[in-house]
Amino acid sequence: MYYPAIGEFLVVLKRLIFKTDSWRLRADSFVKRGFAAKGIDTMPNPKRRHSQKRTSTRRAHDALKGHSLSECPNCHERKMPHRACPKCGYYKGREVLDVEEAS
Predict the structure, then answer these.
(1) Is residue 37 domain-shared with residue 71, that is, in the same domain?
(2) Residue 102 sits in which domain range?
């Protein structure tokens, strides 16, 4: 059996639950009107296909670049800046790493 009071209670409860999320109620009304069934998207989509040149131009700066390297003042090996030297273990003129000699 259907009780009208329960139906009204559910509507009031739904409004209380989604009080801050008014977009959900609007989304429900879109579904009821059949917009979703007609294939109308809610998000924007590109109107035309991007050409190969446009895509390549956008990707021109995506190539990987080599690390910038500096010279260790102690052993003159190449190392990454602001890091301890992996060969001698020195950083800013003092030894911070214990590096074992390779035999």
Answers:
(1) no
(2) 67-103
**Residue 60 within a domain:** no
- Report pLDDT digits (tens) over 45-101: 888 999 999 999 999 999 999 999 999 999 999 999 999 999 999 999 899 988 886
Residue 91, classed as helix, strand or coil, is strand
> What single letter denotes the amino acid at residue 61?
H
In total, how many domains does the chain have?
2
Statement: the pTM of the whole predicted model exceeds 0.70: no
**8 A C-beta contact, residue 84 and residue 97:** yes
